[in-house]
Amino acid sequence: MNPREGSLVIQRCRACGTLLAPLIATCSVCHGVDLESVSSSGIGSIVSSKVMHRERYGTQDDPVSRTIAIVALDDGPWVYSWIAGNVPTHSGQPARVEFQPSAMVERLPLFSVQTYQGP
């Protein structure tokens, strides 16, 4: 199976079908190493996040604020990622995010916060 261009790619164990994070080399369930790349839905919830203030390399500009997070994909695996926009802090439920196609920042996928669509 070839993942769709611009989609978030995760791994699937060919032996047991477990879905795994993108850079995993061994299945955490059966310890198999025969993995295939598959497209993820790219939708998930933020499990944990932290705002980081980093200087831009080679500049004297003010530090840039970025949010790094662990996202629990609806597909199953958890991935490290960057978050575009502000993460709600007191919503009572995890912030929902969506992968931004073709957006990679320092080898991590970029997600944007979705607006809550009530029941």
Descriptive notes:
The chain is mostly beta strands and 119 residues long. Helices cover 0% and strands 48% of the residues. It is built from no helices and 8 strands. The protein has strands at residues 9-13, 19-20, 35-39, 43-54, 64-73, 78-84, 96-105, 108-113. Strands 4-5-6-8-7 form a 5-stranded mixed β-barrel. A 3-stranded antiparallel beta sheet has the order 2-1-3, with no helix packed on it. A hairpin with a 4-residue loop joins β5 (64-73) and β6 (78-84). The protein is globular. The chain starts with 8 loop residues before the first strand and ends in a 6-residue tail after the last strand. The mean pLDDT is 83.
Q: Oligomeric status of the shown chains?
A: single chain
What is the number of helices? 0
Report helical residue fraction. under 10%
Structural class designation: mainly beta
Task: Please describe the structure with a list of short key phrases separated by commas or semicolons.
mainly beta; 119 residues; 0% helix; three-stranded antiparallel sheet; five-stranded mixed barrel
Topology overview:
Elements: E1 9-13, E2 19-20, E3 35-39, E4 43-54, E5 64-73, E6 78-84, E7 96-105, E8 108-113
Parallel strand pairs: 6-8
Antiparallel strand pairs: 1-2, 1-3, 4-5, 4-7, 5-6, 7-8
Short note summarizing the structure:
The chain has about 120 residues and is mainly beta.
